[in-house]
Amino acid sequence: MTEQVIKYNSQLIAKDLSKQVTTGQYQVGDQLPPEKQLCEQYQCSRMTVRRALQTLVDQGLIVRHRGKRSKVIRNRKTVGLLSVQGFSDLSKKLNIEPWTELLSPSGFVVIPDELKALFAEANEFESALGVMRKRGMDQEAILIEQTYVAGLEELTAGIPDFSQQSLFQFLEQDFGIEIVNASQSFQAIACPQQLATDLGVAADAPILRVDRMLQTNDRGVVVFSTVFCKTEHFIISV
């Protein structure tokens, strides 16, 4: 039986090196092998290795200096989850496999009073399209988000399966709506019991709560959300 040989591209190399860093094979302060050795190890060109190393730079794991070996500076990936880019787009940029699980059926609901107290604009809407999801990268859950898209009352049927489709892409492709600005409120909290199992943490473990208002290029459509982020293995950036 012929043994199958893996043909490594920059994405596979980045994923393999990233796993070695985040699982402790390389510690903070360690140097990665030189580019020539990595080329031999993965049987690829130097350009392919350099693209892979740049991905680790983008993840916040290593630093590179011309003429020197790459150095590990962090053992947790820095993920810009809270930017105006969507989760799926950021996952692809960072070469991390994303997944999404719906935690409740999507439909029109009332925006919670907590968000109305934080963002006056939320009081202008009687209801909003509610989407509650657990989201992760590779095998690990990272966050739970409850999102409210206000101003889409005409959407009475055909709500997509947002475990399979990006919410931001849906807004852009079907309505021409793009996110243009974000207002965010951050709070460190003890993880509530009902979220602990879904996030894979102990009850009362420290997590990050982010309440957001995302303005769009359509003044009649505003996105509100509450996001609970696990930061054990990821550093959340904005």
From TrEMBL:
Keyword Oxidoreductase belongs to the record = no
**Transcription regulation listed as a keyword:** yes
Signal peptide positions are none
A Pfam family that this protein carries is GntR
Q: Which CDD domains match?
A: WHTH_GntR
For this UniProt record, give its keywords in alphabetical order, as a comma-separated list: DNA-binding, Plasmid, Transcription, Transcription regulation
Q: Known SUPFAM superfamilies for this protein?
A: Chorismate lyase-like, Winged helix' DNA-binding domain
Q: Please report the stretch or stretches of sequence annotated as the HTH gntR-type domain.
A: 7-76
- In its UniProt entry, what is this protein called? GntR family transcriptional regulator
Q: Give the lineage.
A: Bacteria, Pseudomonadati, Bacteroidota, Cytophagia, Cytophagales
